[in-house]
Amino acid sequence: MKGKRAALCLPLAALLCLDGCSMAPRYARPEAPVPTAWPSGPAYQEGGGQGATKAAADLPWQEFFVDQHLQKLIAMALTNNRDLRIAALNIERSRAQYQIQRAELLPQIDATGTGTLQRIPATISATGEAREIHQYNVDLGVSSYELDLFGRVQSLKDQALEQYLATEQARRTVQISLVAEVATNYLNLAADRERLHLAQETLAAQQATYELIQRRFELGSSSELDLRQAQTRLDAAQVDIARYTTLVAQDENGLNLVVGATVPAELLPPTLSDTLTGVKDIAPGLPSEVLLRRPDVLAAENQLKGFNANIGAARAAFFPRITLVGSVGVGSNELSGLFTHGSGAWTFAPQIVLPIFDAGSAWASLKVAKVDRDIAVARYEKTIQTAFREVADALAERGTIDAQLAAQQSLTDATATTFRLSQVRYEKGVDSYLAVLDAQRSLYGAQQGLIATRLTRLLNLVTLYKVLGGGGEVTPAPPAP
Q1: Residue 377: which of 23, 29, 25, 36 has the closest Cα?
Q2: Which is deepest, 7, 299, 325, 363, by most CB within 10 Å?
Q3: Mind giving me the DSSP string for 85-147?
Q4: Chain Cα centroid distance, residue 40
């Protein structure tokens, strides 16, 4: 009676383990090694993004990037970009690996058919005559199935699941970076196009000024010094046109690469001034809410959970492993007699392996698993710290960029007035052309600085959206356990 009870206990224990038996340590998320609030001080803007109603992670990129041309380019990139395509294929591979590992929890049933023809020579035959033996078998059975009494297979399955989830988070990270990269390339192209346009306008103005001074020089009312000074500004404008023409072409090539296809001309930005309202403002939220939702942080936590599960598999290696091998079928010495009465056959060969001496291999494997888990904890904490620093840097720039933009706009207006007045004074003979030249050079530099500051402000909003986890998709539900 006791033997029957014992025979029933093993399969029952195996079935119970199918529902989650594991010797892995209970997982507890490590405390985030960062402050509970963003930095404060002169560089940070209090109450920024008050008009925002959604957190960045909940704000789809279609709502954040309101420029329609940019929206179309991002959609093209999400379809054609090869990095994102590789990340998606990695997910499919990881899902298949998880399904392979999950299948180990259930018996693998195979149907086999064999036929054997053997000739026994007369020298060893019991009858003293050579004879032939025919044997045919058809079997249905379990080739090798481990009763997961101590959760080894379950732990390996859990590790594969966490690896799959980490791969999905890695794809979301790639998508967030891709969305931000498309926007960055788009805005850089817009800025360089505006710089090129400014250089072309400057060249036209300098050409007219040069021709005017040349006529005055020919009439004797202007010196050769004035003429040569005007020529230097004309040549400088031509140099800038050549330089910005190259930059615009390179920007277009970069945009084509990140989009994964040739961008139609109608989707290219005209100038930066036309895209100043192309993105929205966003609120940073609290670190505890924002950082733990970033896909790179979630991926690091999935990796940590996977290494935690590996400890369970390493612990289970200290305990016996029971493997079942069995089959049921038919056999006959003639093919026609396979399914006749009395041809039934079965085998049952359970095996138990009890570790006794392995020269410390199991203990070393457990140590490796624990150290891997500790390394994963450190990586998880470092990922959170890096994320905190990225957001803090973006907030620091955001807190001062509006003041910088206002000052740069005032500087540009003032230098424009100075240039206008210097031209009037030169025409009336009050000042030399050198004053006009200095004023024009200052105005050109201020205008270039204004373009750069406007670009910095837009890129800061894109960066802040990216580091706050915006631009990804909602994480899909994991496959059925």
Answers
A1: 29
A2: 299
A3: HHHHHHHHHHHHHHHHHHHTTSPPEEEEEEEEEEEE-TTT-TTSS-EEEEEEEEEEEEEEEEE
A4: 30
pTM of the model: 0.80
Q: Which two tokens stand for residue 70?
A: 């940019």
- Range with the lowest mean pLDDT among 308-317, 431-440, 472-481? 472-481
Extents of the domains making up the chain? 16-105+151-319+361-467, 111-147+322-354
Among 205-209, 224-228, 291-295, 322-326, name the most confident range: 291-295
**Cα–Cα distance between 183 and 71 in angstroms, integer?**
9
Residue 438, token pair as written in the block = 């200095």
What local confidence, expressed as pLDDT, does residue 338 receive?
A: 67
* Fold (topology level) of 16-105+151-319+361-467: Outer membrane efflux proteins (OEP) (1.20.1600)
Q: For 423-446, what is the mean pLDDT?
A: 83
Beta bridge partners of 132: 119
Beta-strand runs (E) in 243-354: 321-332, 344-348, 351-353
Residue 452, helix vs strand vs coil: helix
| Both tokens assigned to 106 | 């259930």
- Asked if pLDDT for residue 190 goes beyond 90, the answer is yes
Residue for token digits 């020269």? 359
Residue 360 DSSP code? T
Lowest mean pLDDT among 31-35, 319-323, 399-403, 475-479: 475-479
The answer to whether 27 touches 377, Cβ cutoff 8 Å, is no
List 321's β-bridge partners, or say none.
Answer: 353
What CA–CA distances, in Å, run from 414 to 233, 407, 421, 447?
Answer: 21, 10, 11, 11
Contacts of 47 (CB under 8 A, 6+ apart): none
List the one residue out of 138, 115, 127, 106 whose CA is nearest residue 18: 106
Q: Which of 119, 278, 102, 125 is nearest to 190 (CA)?
A: 278
pLDDT of res. 52: 55
- Phi/psi at 324 (5° precision): -105, 135
How far is it, in rounded angstroms, from Cα 321 to Cα 319? 7
Distances (CA, A) of 309 to 151, 155, 313, 315, 319: 10, 5, 7, 10, 17
Contact predicate 108/142, CB 8 Å: yes
Read off the pLDDT of residues 129-149 as tens digits, 9 standing for 90 and up: 777 777 777 777 677 777 777
Architecture of the domain whose range is 111-147+322-354 = Single Sheet (2.20)
Q: What are phi and psi of 228, to 5 degrees?
A: -70, -35
Range in 180-184, 187-191, 448-452, 468-472 the model is least confident about = 468-472
Condensed to tens digits (0 to 9), the pLDDT of residues 68-87 reads: 999 999 999 999 888 888 88
